[in-house]
Design a protein that fits this description.
This protein is mainly alpha-helical. It has helices at about 5-15, 20-25, 40-55, 65-85, 120-145, 150-175, 175-195, 200-235, 240-255, 260-280, 285-290, 295-305, 310-315, 320-325, 330-350, 355-375, 375-405, 425-435, 445-460, 465-490, 535-550, 565-570, 580-590, 595-605, 615-640, 650-655, 660-665, 670-715, 725-745; strands spanning about 30-35, 90-105, 110-120, 415, 495, 515-520, 525. The strands form two sheets. It has a four-stranded mixed beta sheet. A three-stranded mixed beta sheet has the order 1-2-3.
Length: about 750
């Protein structure tokens, strides 16, 4: 049973008991006028799009579009760093130009204003730092990865790449919900273009359409939420929304939640639907795994680090609205927890390493939503940041393997990559990414997950969410190292994929001979004539940088520890600010004159516990043990004693689980269920309406069009132009007229 009432009760109690400093931090602060150069941050990617388009027009067949893109995005990143360094106590608004100003009366709410302006606070800076930073690195990676397609396709890729970063900047920096929606739809469009980049490949085209359509479902909820926001608050600008929502926060702090209008509580529910679509949560998660049909740089940028966190950003940005709703945050929490668990079980059974990482992304996004729901917005934002680094590392490492082994992604056909010459940096980066994703102690992923897990147990009413997330953490550690042990460790064995496009590949001479399996003198297994090519300097440099960033991000946890780390201090000064249960309960204990161990004991008993212990102190050890168990099981089943890439000890265990592995491998048949319940009925209904439109609607129109035509056809012979024909007609007409006159006289 979902304990929404218990969860919301503690939410309201938390706000009531929050220290005065927290209330002041959460209070609305009027924004100031920002610097003009802030507008250059989203402008630079547009410049990159224009330059890439000009390269296509001029027929450039070099890597120039890539380096122009890197230059533009690097400039945008440096401007973002300057924006971060110039953050003040109050948010700022920079208006590029007046976009929409519509007035239809003198009263309140009768003016619609949406400027092309940018709302800058610490949350904006946090998001834009990793969006622009990662975009620059991934563009450099793509300069090498996409080099096989130098020419028009290369220009098209980087034009869409730049357009995506512009759209993401509008989404994050916009000072109103309409500009956010422009960016929201922009990233959706760019996602469609980039997933379907290989437009001659049916699977890529189908995946692009699926992503576009599924996202439209969520976007409907977002549109309705924006419209309802204007109807209720009379504005869609953040500054005015937060100012007008402040009285509701005061009612919440006073314990008068029943006085908050139902329409205000419905707004976050509608916004949440949009967030579920963009961030791939139940039931709208099905588009993200299929999106792996796009090039790997697309997977790393859009589907791991930036676009899919847009839903998390939307909730964090409008967090005050979610706090005043009775049902929004509980739904966010339970959907996030169930999505995390479901995606983890599917990821355990897949063999495509990019698809495994895709399901991992869905699962980790569930963690982020749970962080917001259990009142640790700082933990959710920290996990967004750490996940951006280590998941980009993982995707790009998988992409390097795919690029070097002719598109091979099946973990049953690759082994011992770490032992091959030229693959050292890729292997180390993959190991760093896996350790972070598995939550290995003292990695950044370990600390960010721990913040969410601890708060899930500390918040009364959400303990079951905590248990689900803890189980998911163990499954994550298992399937993550299943990939690492199968692909990068064990005996050296490799089989090329289907994309034999490199000059080293066996088909370059067009021999057409079937490649045979070779066993080298040291027991290495490979295909004769195929030689995998190690990545070049661009791919290695980006992977090394991301691996270092993934490790260094752990240090942010210890910066300004009083405010839950550096990310916590950034969140503290934004609209996403919220002081979690530990802080307000400790304050409550001290306010009552209780100090020392007694205060700590009182706080521990007041909030939830983990088997009687303080979750904030014991979760470090619990999560470490759970992660170690997952890694140990993966080592035993997928590395120990393995002699071939295709087989492992896990193969002997699977039969004991019955049909479960097959169901998980087939994604629990969710796609088939949707196809049966939604797609097929809609297909049938659409064909029925097509027939109605064709037979009845078009039929009536055609009938009224045919009547004059038939009348004309009947009269046409009488207008033949033959003189004796007209004479006969006149004689016949006279005869008929005389007959009529005769009949009338005789009557």
């Amino acid at each position: 049973m979902i304990e929404t009432s218990g969860m919301m009760a503690v939410l309201h109690a938390a706000i009531l008991a929050a220290p005065s400093s927290a209330k002041e931090a959460a209070a609305f602060v009027a924004p100031e006028t920002g610097a003009w150069w802030i507008a250059l941050i989203p402008l630079m990617p547009i410049v990159g799009t224009i330059l890439a388009t000009l390269c296509a027009i001029r027929g450039i067949k070099t890597k120039l579009p890539a380096f122009l893109t890197v230059g533009c995005l690097a400039t945008s990143f440096l401007l973002t760093v300057a924006m971060f360094l110039n953050l003040g106590d109050a948010p700022t608004i920079t208006t590029a130009w007046e976009w929409f100003t519509l007035t239809w009366g003198e009263g309140e709410g009768q003016t619609f204003t949406a400027n092309f302006g940018f709302y800058v606070d610490s949350l904006t800076a946090l998001w834009m730092l990793f969006v622009t930073g990662l975009a620059t690195l991934i563009a450099l990676y793509a300069s090498e990865y996409m080099s096989h397609d130098v020419g028009t396709g290369y220009c098209r890729f980087f034009a869409a790449f730049n357009l995506f970063v512009f759209s993401m900047a509008c989404l994050v920096m916009g000072d109103n919900l309409l500009l956010l929606f422009l960016g929201w739809e922009g990233v959706g469009l760019c996602s469609y273009l980039l997933i379907g980049y290989f437009y001659r490949k049916p699977a890529a085209v189908a995946a692009a359409k699926k992503a576009f359509i599924v996202n439209r479902i969520g976007d409907l909820g977002l549109v309705m939420g924006i419209l309802l926001t204007f109807v209720h608050f009379g504005t869609i600008e953040y500054a005015e929304i937060f100012a007008k929502a402040a009285p509701y926060i005061e009612l919440l702090q006073a314990g008068r939640i029943s006085e908050i209008p139902a329409i205000a509580q419905l707004i976050p529910v509608l916004l949440m639907i949009g967030a579920f679509g963009k961030s791939a949560q139940l039931p709208l998660y099905i588009w993200l795994p299929d999106a792996m049909e796009g090039p790997t740089p697309v997977s790393a940028l859009i589907h791991a680090a930036t676009m899919v966190t847009a839903g998390v950003y939307l909730i964090a940005r409008t967090y005050p609205l979610f706090l005043i709703s009775d049902i929004a945050l509980p739904i966010v929490g339970w959907v996030g927890a169930l999505t995390a668990l479901l995606a983890a079980t599917i990821g355990m059974a897949q063999f495509d390493i990019k698809r495994i990482m895709a399901y991992s992304t869905v699962s980790q996004l569930g963690y982020m939503f749970c962080g917001l729901a259990v009142l640790t917005s700082a933990g959710a934002a920290f996990h967004v940041l750490t996940h951006a680094f280590f998941k980009a590392t993982l995707f790009l490492a998988c992409g390097a393997v795919m690029h070097g082994f002719a598109g091979q992604l099946d973990l049953r056909k690759l082994s011992g990559v770490r032992k091959m010459k030229g693959w050292g940096i890729v292997s180390i980066a993959m190991l760093v990414g896996c350790l972070n994703l598995a939550g290995f102690p003292f990695t950044s992923g370990y600390f960010s997950k721990d913040m969410i897990l601890a708060e899930a147990y500390a918040t009364p009413g959400t303990a079951l969410i905590g248990w689900i997330l803890l189980l998911t953490a163990g499954l994550t550690a298992y399937y993550t190292f299943r990939v690492y042990f199968r692909v990068f460790e064990g005996p050296v064995e490799y089989h090329p994929g289907d994309d034999l496009h490199d000059h080293d590949h066996a088909d370059e001479h067009g021999s057409g001979e079937e490649q045979h399996h070779d066993v080298g003198e040291h027991g290495d297994h490979h295909h004769a004539g195929f030689h995998p090519h190690a990545p070049g300097w661009a791919i290695n440099a980006v992977l090394a940088t991301l691996a270092v960033c993934s490790i260094a991000a752990a240090g942010l946890y210890f910066v300004n520890k009083k405010e839950h780390g550096w990310v916590g201090s950034m969140v503290h000064d934004s609209s996403a600010n919220y002081v979690g249960t530990a802080a307000f309960l400790d304050h409550a204990a001290h306010a009552g004159g209780v100090t020392g161990d007694a205060a700590h004991e009182g706080a521990t008993h007041a909030h939830g516990t983990f088997l009687g212990y303080d979750p904030h102190k014991v979760m470090y050890y619990v999560s470490a043990v759970v992660g170690a168990i997952g890694i140990g099981i993966a080592f035993f089943l997928h590395l120990l004693g393995r002699k071939h890439a295709e087989t492992a000890r896990a193969d002997k265990v699977l039969p004991a689980l019955g049909p479960i592995p097959k169901w998980a491998r087939n994604k629990w048949y969710v796609d088939e269920l949707y196809n049966f319940l939604i797609v097929r009925p809609l297909w049938v209904i659409s064909h029925i309406f097509h027939l109605i439109d064709k037979l009845f609607v078009d039929g009536l129109v055609n009938l009224f069009g045919l009547l004059p035509r038939f009348g004309g056809s009947a009269i046409r012979p009488s207008q033949s132009g033959v003189l004796h024909g007209y004479a006969i007609g006149m004689a016949g007409g006279v005869a008929i007229l005389m007959l009529v006159v005769l009949v009338m006289v005789l009557r």
